[in-house]
Amino acid sequence: MADEALGKAGLHFDELNKIRVLDPEVSTTTTELKEECKDFVDKIAEFQKIVGSFIEMVDKLAKEVEKEKMKAIGNRNQLKSMAKQREAQEQQLQALISEKKTQLERYRVQYEALLKDEAEQQEFVEQFILQK
Question: Got the DSSP string for the chain?
Fold first, then answer.
């Protein structure tokens, strides 16, 4: 009966028979909630640690990807440059071939003219020898 009267007054006895203002069930529930909160905070801290390492790993990977991307862009640009150089070299060689063909044609015409002159001179020499 004394427990009921104290209970109505808001006073309770705990397991050590000390007077408490809080109901033992509420105290137990509060203690459990405190432990659960501590576990939750620990799990959140562990989660943050895992997420932090994951972000760090993703950042590192992103840097490597960016590095490889820049290499690929450089290689592509170098390839384009080499293609342009080959094209320019091909144009130079085509111009040289054209120039050499023109020179060959000029030499051929000159050769034919010289052959004609030689034939005329040979004929002149033969006529000169025959006239003597």
Answer: -HHHHHHHTT-EE-TT--EESS-HHHHHHHHHHHHHHHHHHHHHHHHHHHHHHHHHHHHHHHHHHHHHHHHHHHHHHHHHHHHHHHHHHHHHHHHHHHHHHHHHHHHHHHHHHHHHHHHHHHHHHHHHHHH-
Domain map (residue ranges) of the chain = 2-131
pTM: 0.49
pLDDT, tens digit, 9 for 90 and up, residues 13-58: 666 666 666 666 777 888 899 999 999 999 999 999 999 999 999 9
